[in-house]
Every structure is written in structure tokens, then in C-alpha cells.
Amino acid sequence: MPPAAISPNRLPRHVAIIMDGNGRWAEARGLERNRGHLAGVDSVKEVVRCVQDLGLEYLTLYAFSSENWNRPDAEVSELMRLLEVYLEENIAEAQERGVRLRVMGRLDSLPASTRSAVDRAVDATRDNPNGDLIFALSYGGRGEIVDAARRLMLAAEAGRLDPELLDEETFAAHLYLPDVPDPDLLIRTGNECRVSNFLLWQIAYAEIYTSPVMWPDFRREHLEVAIGDYQSRERRFGMTSAQVETVSETVSEAGRGSRA
Ligand code: IPE
Ligand code: IPE
Ligand code: MG
Questions:
Q1: CA of 126 to the centre of ligand 3 (A)
Q2: Of the candidates 9, 13, 27, which has an alpha carbon nearest to the alpha carbon of residue 185?
Q3: Cα separation of 28 and 68, whole Å?
């Protein structure tokens, strides 16, 4: 059951989160940055449970960007280690809840041990029916678009695709996870207002919510406030407000009609 602040009718299908602020959270406490990453794992666990309790279908978490490879070696290794531990410890809970663990990004760049933890989690949960938990790992939006373009060019070269017929749908079908719908709501924590190369294609019409809360402090109630805020917005997709109202009335009339 959604909490009172959230309506059960206009829930986002897909929430994507840029989990930012771990380093600043730690530094503000006189701790090493890596302590912030460790604390951030608890936020991941809580947010994942909240999303599942609300019955949302897709949650994508930006865990490691292609640019994050430029961080100090000790920080990169700790992030990889935490990810491995998280995956290993959470396969059982994902199985219990029927959640499918998935990943998107240039996985070939991952260390072998991280890659095998990822493969194990993905394989073990492959057939689970109760929603997707997707980790963007070694991920960059521009890289994803370039990888899609490369696949399209190879298909054209092999005669399987006519460049004249290329449209947005065909392009999107060559992204990393083509079956996943675009995020409805994009949340960024850590008091920054930028996209940092996340899901550039997919967020074309996402509602964006930024939170001043550093990721290790982000809890269920913060997520619920973000979803409540999302529900108060009017998504116009380029139309006028009056058109949007007519469309939603028509849709609800049709819904009433089909039930009659
Ligand atoms: C987000 O927190 C975690 C990753 C990018 C992996 P940061 O480490 O970016 O924290 P800040 O932005 O430095 O506070
Ligand atoms: C974005 O955060 C990447 C992740 C949350 C994984 P960053 O901290 O790397 O982004 P910038 O550098 O502030 O743009
Ligand atoms: Mg950051």
C-alpha cells in the first residue's frame, strides 16, 4: 500500500537515481570518502525495498559512471568491492522478492571479480517476475549512444538495415536494455543539478527531481516525497495543458467504457 502522500494511481513505472554525495557526506564527518560509499549501501538497500513495496516496475541506480574510472585507484577498488559484496549478499533477498537484477554499461571494463559477481546475480535472478533492479555500471550515456550507433552501422553494412528507414524506435532498439521503458522520474541526490552522462537518450521526457540530501542520508521518506512531487506535475510531452486534459479525460472515459 502506498503511504498517504502517494496516490496509487499515478505511480511512475520507472524511477532512475543518480546517487550522489557519498564523498561529501564522509568529508563533512571527518571520514575518508570510502566511508561514505559504505554508508551509501544502506540507502541502496532501503530505497530498493521501498520501490518494491510501492510495486514500481523498474529502478535504475547509477552506481559507477564511465568517468568515475578517473578517480583514485583506492576509491575505484572500494566501489567495486562494495558492489561485489552487495550483489553477493542480496541475491537471496532478490530471489525471495522475485526481483530481477540487471546491469547496463561497458561491463568488459570491470575487474574479473566484479564481472563474475554481476554475472552470478544476473543469472540467478533472470526469470524473476516482480520488477527490475538495474545497476548502471561503467556506464555513460554518450558511450551507450555510440555503442548503439556502432551496432546500427554494422547492421547496415551487413544489409540488415536500410539507413533510410532508421527512426527513433529502431535506434532505441539498439540501446543496452531496449525492453526497459524510459524513466518517468529521475532523482539526483547530493545537491547538484546536472545529468553527468546518465541515460541521455532515455531521459528525454523524464521529470527531474533534485534533492539536497546526500545519498547516505537518503531514506524511504525522501523517496516518497520525490514520488509525491512527481505526482503533482503535469507531463505535457510538447502539448498544451488543455490538450493534456482532453487526452486524459478521453483515456479515463475509454477506461470506464471498457469496464462497462
Ligand atoms: C556518488 O558519490 C558515488 C559515486 C559517484 C560512485 P560521490 O562519490 O560522487 O560523492 P561526492 O559527490 O564526491 O560527494
Ligand atoms: C555521477 O556522480 C555518477 C554516479 C552517481 C555514479 P559524479 O559525482 O561522478 O558526477 P559529477 O562528477 O559530480 O558530475
Ligand atoms: Mg559526486
A1: 31
A2: 13
A3: 21
Q: Is 165 helix (H, G, I), strand (E, B) or coil?
A: helix
Bigger pLDDT: 12 or 252? 12
Q: State the closest ligand 2 atom to the C-alpha of 20, by its place in the atom list counted from 1.
A: 5
Q: pLDDT tens across 111-170, in order? A: 999 999 999 999 999 999 999 999 999 999 999 999 999 999 999 999 999 999 999 999
CATH 3.40.1180.10 at 14-259, yes or no: yes
C-beta 58 within 6 A of ligand 1: no
From ligand 3's centre to the CA of 174, what distance in Å?
29
CA-CA distance, 74 to 64, in Å (whole number)? 14
Q: In which residue are the cell numbers 561503467 written?
A: 138
Question: Which residue type occupies 156?
Answer: A
Q: What is the pTM of this model?
A: 0.95
